[in-house]
Each structure stands twice: as C-alpha cells, then as structure tokens.
Amino acid sequence: MRFAVNYSTKLAELVMAGKVDFDLFKCPEWEGLLKAATPIKPVYLHLDITIGRDRVQRLDYAKLRRMLAETNTPHVNCHLSGSADLKIGNKTDRLTLLKRWIDEINLLKREFPGYTVISENLPFEPPIPEYHLASDPKLITEAILETDTGLLLDISHARISADTLGVDYREYIESLPLERLHEIHITGLRSYHGYLADHFEMQEGDWSSAEWAADQIAAEAWREPEIVAFEYGGVGEWFSWRTETWALEEQVPRLNKLFGENRQSI
To answer: Based on the structure, what is the number of domains in the chain?
Structure first.
C-alpha cells in the first residue's frame, strides 16, 4: 500500500524543501503536469474516464496506454455515472444503467489488457440527479462482480451520498464489494453553497473516517489497496483556490503515517 497526494506546485515546493514526504504524486493525464511532477517524485495517473454516458468510445486509447506505461500506473480507473432521466426506484432504469456500465467496463478491459479496471463511486446530492441511481451500492456491486473488476472507494463521496440518502456512511461503505478494493480516496468535507463538498483540507470530524479505514485495512476486513490518495490541492481553477501550504505541511505527514509504505499503527 502506497500513499499519494494530488500534485500541486505548493506540495512540490514542500517536497523539494524536505518538509513532507510520501510515496506518489497523483496526477491527471496532462502531459505538461507530468513533466513538472516526475522529476520530483514518482507519479501515477487518475484518468478522466466516466462511464454510463456513452463517452468511452471516443477516448484516445493509444495515448492513455502510453501514459499509463510511462508512469507505471497499476490500474485503470473510471467513474460510475448515470443520467438524470434514470430513476433509482425504476427496475427498468436500473437494468438499463447496469447494462451500460457492464458494456463500457468490458470495453475498457479490452482496450487496456493487462490492467485491472477499477470503478469509483460518485457523490449524490440533489443538484446532481445523474448520480442518484449511480450511487446505489447494490448496483455498484453488481457491476463490479459481473465484470470481475475492482473498486475505487472514495470515502468522501460515500459520506456525501450517505448524508443525502440519510444512512450511516459506514453502513453505506460496508455494502460495497470491499474484497475488490484497489484504491481509496480521502479528503476533508465542508459545507459549500448549502451542500457538503469534498476536496477540502481535513477537518476535525474527517479524521475519524480516515482512521476507521486504516483500522479496517489493518484488521484485514477490507482488501489492502495498492494506493490511498489524499485528494487535496491541485492545479487549475477547480483546485488552486483551496490549496493551502499549511494544510499540506500538517496533514500529509499524519496521513502518510496511516497509509504510506512506512505506515505506523494507530
């Protein structure tokens, strides 16, 4: 198990100054960003692949295969989405989305031979109705088991979906196929424009979910993932305004002790 953090210029500066250490940078498939990150620390890719929307047929597979090989990325990730017209209580809609997922995951398996395909749960909230049916853990489990693929557990997404659905987030997570776990994402949550939002620094209440996950892995209740990533910070308009040096300097070492190659028991 290795611990990764979203690449950002502020994080790179801390690494080069010897103020933080961890195993990997997590990067999108941006050529320029990889050129900046790879001289500093090993990198793995988190791909912008969404299934359930008939988009995977148009991906540049040759480019993605080359970049995955160059970075030694251990698996191919995708995001389990849907469409707003598909309703969670409709059996026909459930079967429609499940078939889309299975067909598109199988396409990814054919295009990326030798890689495990892993599927990420997305956060359902009322402003994102296309994630309602897609957030159903039973449907997620069916797709992963039917395609013999893996799970990318985003704990923050699970906490948001569970909050929206009015269930305990641990119960929600434990209904997913954790025996297929290959990667975990962790962030802090904060209320933003009236809803829970992720990709913030860890708040006091966020640490209990991270420590619970570390306990579950240590107890072998969950499959030990290849990577645990702190999805805080980044580049571009979406991430740069919430990338604080103080948070990286304080929180990366604490998470690295939980999930890094040289992790410590809690």
So the answer is: 1
